[in-house]
């Protein structure tokens, strides 16, 4: 019996060690430094008909998506695709490529599917000035983009998500400019453009928000009297934190969120499922993120208080009008978190639903996304007093 007891103890210890190791693995993957993009699509064929070019791609859940999407090419550059999809059999689809002059496509080229539709303000038809935001960890580059029309004292701060870059938010900047808002498109630490800090790890918004707070201060110092925060994915988590801070209360008058992270624990579980892992593995990662001794082993300088980012639990603390645009097919930021938040705060939160995956709502229906945001800003009168003081 003693031998059996030691065998059971050994099995328990081994199981705990294995589960602990899995939790560490998930935590380290989640906070990993910005990695090289994966080019996991191959252009199978290129067909030309007059001045139109069509490409053939493998049939996937992404390539069959109707809407305005892009291919980022491994050989550099971006190819915009027309919204319609052609059936090329059970394994293939055809998409029209909206090529720029001089662009050429060949079979065999490697590409990555993307919702990023513009690589620079110029691509989006916007004029921009490069500015540096002074943060505690160094200068963070940003684009300052004027509104269309009169100078505006209401500014939009655009915050991108994890693993993305600021160009991804230009989809929303176009709408903000048309709504007569000055835009500041920011970077932050360890996003590949902002300051490199420590081991280069992401802190799920816990420290990145300091850099965005500095951007809000920059806006106030340069003529902003009111601020609307546009947050994409993790950028939404940052926006919600900032809007709740006493320092910025009164300055932030609205929040626009696309596919927001409203609860990190639910989001981590969803991303485990997206990667083909059991959802419960996400729970094992929590101690490795939030506990001081374990978070150091993850590679973090300080633990992350994940409770601060649970806006389902903190719904009663929200004070700023919020618009959420979310795809019901989101496999990264759980869509049901948005529906729960609206149910809890119908007085403050509006939700617009799209048939789209993570941060792809704009791509799935460009006109409706823009119209909804513009109408919401107008109805809340957030763009008022474009000239002078509020």
In short:
This protein has 390 residues and is of the alpha/beta class. It has ten helices and 16 strands. Helices cover 30% and strands 23% of the residues.
Whole-number total of structural domains: 2
Class computed from helices, strands and strand pairing = alpha/beta
Largest β-sheet summary: 8 strands, antiparallel
CATH superfamily of the largest domain: Alpha/Beta hydrolase fold, catalytic domain
Global geometry: globular
What fraction, in percent, of the residue positions are helical? 25-40%
CATH architecture identity of the largest domain: 3-Layer(aba) Sandwich
Q: Roughly what fraction of the amino acids lie in strands? A: 15-25%
CATH domain class of the largest domain: Alpha Beta
Unreliable stretches covering 5 or more consecutive residues: 4-19, 385-390
Query: What is the count of helical runs?
Result: 10
SSE topology string: HEEEEEEEEEEEHEHEHEHHHEHEHH
Radius of gyration using CA atoms only: 22 Å
State the CATH topology of the largest domain.
Rossmann fold
Termini separation: 80 Å
Mean pLDDT: 91
The tally of beta strands, per DSSP, is 16
């Amino acid at each position: 019996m003693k031998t059996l007891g030691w065998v059971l103890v050994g099995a328990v210890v081994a199981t705990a060690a294995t589960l602990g190791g899995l939790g560490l693995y998930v935590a380290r993957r989640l906070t990993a430094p910005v990695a090289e993009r994966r080019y996991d699509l191959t252009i199978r064929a290129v067909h030309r008909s007059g001045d139109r070019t069509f490409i053939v791609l493998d049939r996937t859940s992404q390539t069959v998506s109707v809407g305005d999407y892009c291919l980022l090419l491994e050989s550099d550059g971006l190819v915009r695709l027309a919204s319609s999809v052609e059936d090329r059999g059970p394994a293939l689809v055809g998409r029209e490529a909206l090529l720029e002059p001089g662009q050429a496509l060949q079979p065999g080229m490697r590409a990555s599917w993307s919702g990023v539709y513009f690589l620079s303000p110029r691509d989006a038809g916007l004029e921009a000035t490069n500015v540096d935001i002074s943060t505690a960890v160094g200068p963070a580059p940003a684009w300052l983009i004027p509104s269309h029309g009169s100078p505006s004292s209401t500014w939009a701060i655009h915050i991108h998500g994890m693993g993305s870059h600021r160009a991804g938010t230009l989809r929303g900047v176009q709408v903000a400019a048309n709504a007569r808002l000055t835009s500041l498109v920011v970077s932050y630490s360890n996003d590949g453009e902002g300051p490199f800090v420590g081991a280069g790890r992401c802190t799920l918004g816990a420290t990145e928000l300091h850099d965005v707070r500095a951007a809000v201060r920059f806006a106030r110092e340069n003529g902003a009297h009111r601020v609307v925060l546009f947050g994409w994915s993790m950028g939404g988590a940052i926006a919600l934190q900032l809007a709740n801070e006493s320092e910025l209360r009164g300055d932030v008058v609205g929040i626009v969120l696309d596919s927001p992270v409203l609860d990190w624990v639910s989001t981590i579980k969803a991303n485990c499922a997206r990667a083909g892992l059991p959802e419960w593995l996400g729970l094992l990662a929590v101690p490795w993120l939030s506990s001081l001794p374990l978070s150091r082993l993850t590679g973090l300088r300080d633990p992350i208080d994940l409770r601060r980012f649970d806006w389902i639990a903190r719904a009663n603390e929200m004070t700023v009008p919020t618009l959420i645009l979310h795809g019901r097919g989101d496999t990264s930021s759980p869509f049901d978190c948005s529906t729960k938040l609206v149910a809890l705060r119908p007085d403050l939160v509006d939700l617009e639903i799209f048939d789209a995956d993570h941060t792809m709502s704009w791509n799935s229906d460009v006109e409706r996304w823009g119209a909804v945001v513009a109408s919401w800003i107008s109805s809340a009168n957030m763009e008022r007093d474009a000239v002078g003081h509020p």
